[in-house]
Design a protein that fits this description.
By secondary structure, the chain is mostly helical. It folds into 2 domains: about 80 residues, Endonuclease Iii, domain 2, CATH 1.10.1670; about 100 residues, Hypothetical protein, domain 2 (Endonuclease III, domain 1). The protein has 11 helices and no strands. Helix 5 packs across helix 6 and helix 9 packs across helix 11. The protein is elongated and about 55 Å long.
């Protein structure tokens, strides 16, 4: 895909949605971190339903540790893998207090040192909470990048590196959100909604759906 076409794609995304945001509900970097950890293999909707009750009770590392693993499980038991996630959230809250004075670290290496936090989760927090120019590649972005030709790659890291390299700098702040929303609602896995896609004439996908 040539640079002019890439630019057109992001210009259309921006025109359709000038200020894209995550669909996870949060007010602080800590709330975002917890929500993203909980969202692994779960929908944002299911996470928001749980955190709407959880965060009024425990929205800081200290309050989360005080809540404890067993009580936390009661709040998040409707989310997949809730036992493992409860353990990770309590452990990462302890580490935040011990190593980072309760603050969320602003670099990837320190974020990835927290239980339950991988590269994708770290990138989401860096981009969404702190405005860093990162690309968090989940299944949606991986699919969209390969299908459209925006950043084809054999694994999430390769896709991340290509998108960071080829996305025009002025779009990088919001590119992650545009791509994930596009993959979630339009460029879906089984039958992409090509007829209603704003970039269908620019996309490299050959097997476009007709209806």
């Amino acid at each position: 895909m040539n640079p002019a076409k890439r630019r057109q794609i992001f210009e259309r995304f921006r025109a359709a949605n000038p200020h894209p945001k995550t669909e996870l509900a949060y007010r602080t970097p800590f709330e975002l971190l917890v929500a993203v950890v909980l969202s692994a293999q779960a929908t944002d909707k299911s996470v928001n339903l749980a955190t709407a009750k959880l965060f009024p009770v425990a929205n800081t590392p200290a309050k989360m540790v005080e809540l404890g693993e067993a009580r936390l499980m009661e709040y998040i038991k409707t989310i997949g893998l809730f036992r493992t996630k409860a353990k990770n959230v309590i452990q990462l809250s302890c580490l935040l207090l011990e190593k980072f004075k309760g603050e969320i670290p602003r670099n990837r290496e320190e974020l990835e040192s927290l239980p339950g936090v991988g590269r994708k989760t770290a990138n989401v927090v860096l981009n969404t909470a702190f405005g860093e120019l990162t690309m968090a590649v989940d299944t949606h972005i991986f699919r969209v990048a390969n299908r459209t030709g925006l950043g084809p790659g054999k694994d999430p890291l390769e896709v991340e590196q290509k998108l960071l390299k080829f996305t025009p700098p002025e779009f990088l702040q919001d590119a992650h959100h545009w791509l994930i929303l596009h993959g979630r609602y339009v460029c879906v896995a089984r039958k992409p909604k090509c007829p209603e896609c704003t970039i269908r004439d620019l996309c490299d996908y050959r097997n476009k759906t007709k209806f």
